[in-house]
Amino acid sequence: MQKLFYDTRTLDSACRQKYSLSEEVMMENAAAALRTEIFAVASEKNCRKVLVLCGSGNNGADGYALARQISGCFEVKVFECSPPSSPLCVLQAQRVENCGIALCALEDFFLEKPDSSSIVVDCIFGSGFKGGFTGSGGEQLMGLLAFVNSGEAFRLACDVPTGLHADGTLAQIVFKADLTVTMGAQKYCLYSDMAKNFTGRVKVGELGVSRPLFENSMKGGDGCEPSTLEKDIFLLDLEDMVLPYRRDNLVNKGSFGNAYIACGEKSGASLIAANACLRFGAGLVTLIRPDRSFAESPVPSLSMEFLTASNFGPRVSALCVGMGLGYDEKNTAFYGDYLLNFPEVRCVLDADILYSPAVVEILERRPKGCVLTPHPKEFSELLRLCGLGNYSVDECIFRRPELVEKFCRRFPEAVMVAKGANSAIGVFTAQEGFRLYINSFGSPALAKGGSGDTLAGMICALLAQNYEPKDAAVTACLAHSLAACKVKNNFALTPADLIQNIGDL
User: Fold this and answer.
1) Rounded to whole angstroms, what are the CA distances from 31 to 15, 61, 122, 305?
2) SS (H, E, C) 461-493
3) In Å, what is the CA distance from 199 to each residue of 126, 170, 503?
4) Strand 201-205 to strand 232-235: parallel, antiparallel, or no bridges (unpaired)?
């Protein structure tokens, strides 16, 4: 996994001080990182023209330096979106002029008509963007971005696409990159839900020292401490997925746990979860409903692969409750009472149970071993029930890291999986404090009923196989996302396809 930072400017400064690097040296390395990607894209797409959009600060200076470094290899033009103002931007612009590279006014860009043989490079604001586009210059810049976004040219952003704020929210318009080369280290803003349409692929460009040295430049004997704004937020990699391969031969079905799946009013949801649970390695899967007739003559559509029960047996490895449960508090209490009486049983709390006051008592009395999997509307209601505030669904998306942390600090050791375009997994422990893990592999194919039920069943399967709750959430979320990516047409994914694809990971 990779560390995410809200703001790397303090790291830039610490890096210069600690490793005796000048700002200019780091800038030349930033330009070299952009140059490497320019050549790779040009080779793949047969691009001949590079159009660089430069702002007035040091992001613009990176653009001027890039233009100089690739001059002679491409047809290069620089468009000044505002006059150079920072000392390095003024210097780099002068160097470009000395090289005989065309310096053009912003309005001249509209005459270029960049096509698929062109690369447009956004070096306007980068991570320094604040507020929005104001004034007449702002309107002109918004028009430029709209024009670029609607064209066929390959779009590359330097550090952070223009219009994307440091907290991951968006201005009125954002440069829509096909590739973002972010400098020094990964930044949280590139992995918010809102940013997902605008970053494209993200690569990290090194600035004169290796990435580990850059990220740790504020640690050591110089007395520097990490900024109080930085938190332990991590971007998950595929290597963080630890699938439940069976390596021992002397085993039986009991070696892989007995997962119980609550079967409520809408049995289809629990069936999806049960199928996913069995597919992801649980040794036994038992569907349970507090109704004697359920065990004797279950719903006809239930698979012969599952056991059925009207009460809990002596060996319960994990319980998944909420999918299609309904809102009958008597039924909810059946599962809630069990979890309160058997706090060692790990559980997944999903969907309907997140609207019940019973979930608050469970979290108050036994947060350890609980994994909660709300979508934004469920998260909003859960926060209200827990007395943590009234937040709209939009706030639960835009302010997800903050609200996940608020929840996790209130219920230490409970694992929160806040679902979204880039789902966030949070947990707070006395040993490590608060940690947040971002899964960026999510696909729009998952925006379909049953996807969440599948994820709940997968997490339950890993809990039954004795994974730690945080590890179960991480591996299941990654596997769930990758299984979705295996469908040929992203509109066509069904829960059955998703569950089938688990076996092909």
Assistant:
1) 17, 9, 12, 58
2) HHHHCCCCHHHHHHHHHHHHHHHHHCCCCCCCC
3) 12, 12, 31
4) unpaired
Of 438, 441, 417, 478, nearest to 6 (Cα)?
Answer: 438
What single-letter amino acid sits at 284?
A: L
User: Per DSSP, what are the bridge partners of residue 321?
Assistant: 349
Range 47-51 average pLDDT: 94
What pLDDT, in 10s, does the model give residues 206-255? 999 999 999 888 765 443 444 434 579 999 999 999 999 999 999 999 99
- Angle, CA 489 vertex, CA 487 and CA 492 arms, to 5°: 80
* CB-based contact 237:319 (threshold 8 Å): no
Place of tokens 């005989």: 100
Nearest to 38 by CA among 122, 106, 151: 122
Neighbours of 64 (CB within 10 A): 30
DSSP-based three-state secondary structure for 3: strand
pLDDT in tens, 137-183: 888 999 999 999 999 999 999 999 999 998 899 999 999 999 999 99
Please state, in angstroms and as integers, the Cα–Cα distance from residue 363 to each residue in 121, 215, 357, 408, following that order.
49, 36, 10, 10
C-beta of residue 206 within 8 angstroms of C-beta of residue 439:
no
Taking a C-beta distance cutoff of 8 angstroms, is the pair 415, 371 a contact?
A: yes
- Are the C-beta atoms of residues 416 and 427 closer than 8 Å to each other? yes
| C-alpha torsion 480→455→490→37, nearest 10 | -40
Do 415 and 390 meet the contact criterion of CB atoms below 8 Å apart?
no
Angle between helices 495-502 and 451-464 (to 10 degrees): 30
β-strand pairing of 318-321 with 433-439: unpaired
What span, in angstroms and rounded, lies between the C-alpha atoms of 122 and 137?
Answer: 17
